[in-house]
Amino acid sequence: MKLRVWPARKSVGPASAERSVTGIRLADAPCSFGAFGITVGLLPNVPGPVEVLEAIAAAGYEGTELGPPGYLGHGALLRDRLERLGLSLAGGYIPIHLSEPARWEEDLVGMAGTLDLFGAADGAEARPVLADAGSPARLANPGRGAEDADLGFDTDGWCRLAEGVRRARWSSHVRAASSRRSTTTRARTSRRPGRSSAFSSSPTLGSSSIPATLPSAGATRPRPCATGG
User: Fold this and answer.
1) Among 14, 23, 53, 66, which is most exposed with the fewest C-beta within 10 angstroms?
2) In this structure, is residue 203 part of a structural domain?
């Protein structure tokens, strides 16, 4: 069973007493029910989103991971499905071909789409789960990279992977800065005399209010890997 733990928040309900003691809230994920990237839309008898969400709520979990982007729905549909069952969004799996620079641009567009889903679901507490998307050879031989040198990374390969992680982080920070500027502009435009602005100073990641460390004024695009690649 896949578990997600994320920061506790003030809430009510039968489990409130336990949370006040532990400060821990548990979430599940669609993959626990067989719904993930290589099954949804490809294999028969994969449970639908409503069935999965109802099972998660019935089991007593307080939140869920997204599963494949769009599986639980988009926009208002996603938000309504979660709210109806009292579930929060805990995070979302974001696969990126971290060691393949030629695929970064496409993958980062996909990451942006997942972050937009966080915003649509009011996912202020949601966290991206960054993962290497792998290669056909490694996907066909899971766990064998340590024993088969052809499947593992050499020094340059590890360097490219590290650079891919930096690119993803940099991209999310730039997106956060852009989102915060946009929110500030809207707040200033809508501010009325005698009323305080509803704008929060918390930075955002994607369209959601996920805390993030924004680039400094002198921040620059991450430098290419020093060892080549």
Assistant:
1) 14
2) no
